[in-house]
Design a protein that fits this description.
By secondary structure, the chain is α+β, with helices and mostly antiparallel strands. The chain contains six helices and five strands. A five-stranded antiparallel β-sheet has the order 1-5-4-3-2. Helix 3 packs across helix 5. The protein is globular and about 50 Å long. The two termini are 25 Å apart. This is DUF2867 domain-containing protein. InterPro entries: DUF2867. It comes from Streptomyces yunnanensis.
Amino acid sequence: MRLPRTAHTDRPWRVHEIAEDFTVEDVWALPTPGGPDDLAWLVRQTAEGLVGGVKGEGLVSHALFAVRWKLGALLGWDTAGSGIGTRLPSLRDRMPADLRQGPQGPDLGASPFTSLYQRDDEWAAEMANKTVHAVMHIGWVPDGSGGYRGQMAVLVKPNGPFGTLYMAAIKPFRYLGVYPALMRSIGREWQANASRRRTHGH
């Protein structure tokens, strides 16, 4: 379920300290019911999905990602010189000492994302290319009925007018195809992993 931006901005997340010049583009409630200490399982599931590739199930989702990566290859959006540490400094450079010295989060391998930090109730990872610098933020929040669930926010800082135009152009595809497919995939994976969580005492 899509949420208002305030569902992210009104919470005291540490990401606010390092991404104040980013725009909160999307906020979604994740279909991942659990207990108060289950964020680590959601982080593990998300990391495995990123390392293994996008598993969107819808035709629109498949088509959008296929077009996006083909265009990126053609136009050099995702070249080594367009990402973190080359075109842009990492947000880790902005992190206060306690975050920098704490757990960074999982190694995301060859995926576009790099973990920034992981806490008991939030995890953040960043990526950049020639169009945008983005942060994926996964929080763990009360669900209003005694349990907890995940909440995903996407924060972006477009790279100039072209980046802004690109984000506007893909917005309808994100809402119609990508996110609904992603939510279904996350929910199915969470349910499939339920027995593994129970085995480990959750």
